[in-house]
Structures are given as C-alpha cells and as structure tokens.
Design goal:
Blueprint: H1 14-17, H2 22-27, E1 35-36, E2 39-44, E3 48-54, E4 59-68, E5 73-82, H3 86-119, H4 121-126
C-alpha cells in the first residue's frame, strides 16, 4: 500500500501535483513537491499557496490566499481533510479541541504578526 510509505516519499504529494496544469507548474514560485516543514508544497503563487500532508492517518491540504480589495486586503485560509480510513475519523475527533483552541489561533496570530511586521500597521494608523 503506497500510503504506508514514509511521509517524505514523493508519492504523497502526487495526488494534488498531478492536477496541476503545465501553466500552473511554470507559474509556481517554488518547485512543486518541495518540503515545507512537515508539509509539501503543491504550488506557491504570488498571492496563494497550497501545502499538503499525507501520512498513515490523514491526507490534508492547507490553502492560504491573499487578495486585494478596493479598500483592504482579504486573507483566506482553509484546511481540507480527506479520510484515509476509520482511523482518520478517530484522529480528527481526538485532535479537534487542540486544533480549534491552539493550532488555528496560533497560525492566524503568526500571519497577523508577519503582516504587522511587513506593513508596520502601528505606523500607518498613527499617521492617519
């Protein structure tokens, strides 16, 4: 069974990478399949990225995108999970409180901190 291979095995990123068009592959800033911590990059564009994790328990993807609106920016963040088997349901139920109370807020705090660092929002609001 291919899903029993190591998480660093390239076959784990294949399901999403195979869906990329030639244009999307060439537009990606980072080579698809490159590791990013525990995840693998499916694609990274100027304003959007898709990361993937696949192991014996879960097959998941994290999408983040930033779009400019007429008066602000809008940030989108989503986690998609595909069940691998019965253990995925048990795993998701067990980690649900942890991810809602610790993981997601931590991710969003780090995004906000990076945003404030890059755009120095305290300086911008003081000059208004």
């Amino acid at each position: 069974m291919s899903w029993l291979k190591s998480r660093t095995e390239p076959s784990f990123v294949a399901p999403f990478i195979k869906r990329l068009t030639t244009a999307d592959r060439s537009k990606s800033i980072v080579l698809p399949g490159e590791p990013e911590g525990l995840l693998h990059i499916v694609y990274r564009f100027d304003n959007e990225q898709l990361l993937e994790l696949a192991n014996r328990t879960v097959h998941a993807a994290a999408l983040s995108a930033l779009f400019e609106t007429p008066d602000a920016y809008r940030f989108y963040f989503a986690i998609y999970v595909r069940d691998i088997g019965w253990c995925t349901l048990v795993y998701r139920a067990a980690i649900d409180p942890f991810r809602r109370l610790i993981v997601y807020p931590s991710i969003l705090r780090s995004v906000r901190k990076a945003w404030e660092h890059v755009f120095d929002t305290t300086r911008l609001s003081a000059s208004s």
